[in-house]
Design goal:
- The protein contains 14 helices and no strands.
- With 334 residues, it is an all-alpha fold.
- It starts with a helix and ends with a helix.
């Protein structure tokens, strides 16, 4: 019992020495302010794009393998679901008395629907497991390839595929923590839907209290996720354990959380713009081809493009997170 108490006191002392914040106490800025000199948002995005492009042969091969495995194990989006969405939008357009939707408006509505709802049919439990495993493997392989390439090692794609899966279990556990940390913001979204249906948000004190509670839940998730994203990288280091990775990630973002959070938001914005810039013109082309060639309706163009965008986005986001982690670590040790 005494040994356990001493161990706990040692852990507490170490934790307090690393974290200057104290509950219900005002923390002086000199105790938590930390420098973080990073390139600008556009400059760093260009750096990520340049780095990914310099290793394009590896990443093209990785994307191709991911697409084949995803199509075989999980399946691409449903062409029937997409056709139903298109027909429903066309019927809505025909029922409008004054004016009509332009093709660009229809493409925009389809893009938003696909981005938020998707066009996949209900996946089975095995398909969901395969999807999670493939997402983890593409993350681990991308990080492994970048780490070794930037260290000057000559590696091939097969080396990454064979060796990157070593920390699969520990990475899964950190990813599970990440999902749990997103529960508060999920509760806020569910609460918003319920409050909208019940008319709670029509005004008054109830609406104000709801928005306060929802904001606090969202901030809690954002606070946790900001550091856990780095934990997903740290846990891939040899011999690293999940809890230690999370602890190191928390130390890394201490005093820098808001600046790093803005980088995550920028990353999401760029990925969304990539989808919009590519997918909306493809939807317009698909609508035009179906008008002049009815047999084209059975060609799954959109599901295939969605699968390709998913693979490209997964590799790019993994690269962005890892390269930002490298920048923060290099700045910390300089």
């Amino acid at each position: 019992m005494q040994a356990s108490f001493k161990k706990f006191r040692a852990w507490q002392k170490d934790f307090l020495s690393r974290r200057p914040h104290r509950t219900l106490r005002l923390t002086r800025r000199r105790d938590y302010a930390r420098t973080l000199e990073l390139p600008g948002y556009i400059s760093f995005t260009h750096y990520v794009n340049k780095t990914v492009w310099s290793y394009r042969k590896l990443f093209f091969g990785l994307a191709g393998i991911y697409l084949v495995l995803y199509a075989v194990l999980v399946g691409i989006g449903s062409q029937e679901t997409y056709t139903t969405l298109t027909d429903t939008l066309q019927e809505t357009n025909n029922n409008i008395v004054d004016g009509d939707f332009s093709q660009l408006t229809q493409a925009g509505v389809l893009f938003l629907t696909i981005a938020t709802v998707g066009i996949s049919s209900n996946p089975t439990e095995s398909q969901q497991i395969y999807a999670v495993l493939l997402a983890l493997l593409i993350w681990l392989t991308t990080v492994w390839l970048l780490r070794n390439k930037m260290a000057g090692h000559k590696v091939k794609l097969r080396d990454g595929l064979y060796n990157a899966g070593s920390p699969l279990v520990s990475t899964f556990l950190v990813g599970l923590v990440l999902i749990v940390q997103c529960i508060p913001i999920l509760l806020a979204v569910i609460g918003y839907a319920a409050a909208t249906n019940s008319g709670l948000l029509s005004g008054g004190v109830e609406a104000m209290l709801f928005w306060i509670a929802a904001s606090l839940l969202a901030l809690l998730s954002v606070f946790w996720v900001t550091s856990t994203m780095f934990g997903m990288v740290i846990v891939t280091l040899p011999g690293m354990y999940p809890m230690k990775a999370l602890r190191n990630a928390g130390d890394l973002v201490l005093g820098r959380r808001v600046r790093i959070l803005l980088r995550w938001l920028w990353m999401i914005l760029i990925a969304a713009l990539l989808w919009a810039v590519i997918l909306i013109p493809v939807i317009l082309l698909d609508l035009w081809l179906k008008d002049i060639w009815p047999a084209f309706i059975n060609v799954p163009v959109i599901p295939i493009v969605l699968a390709i965008l998913g693979a490209v986005s997964a590799i790019w986001i993994s690269s962005y997170v890892y390269l930002l982690y490298r920048k923060v670590v290099d700045e910390r040790t300089s």
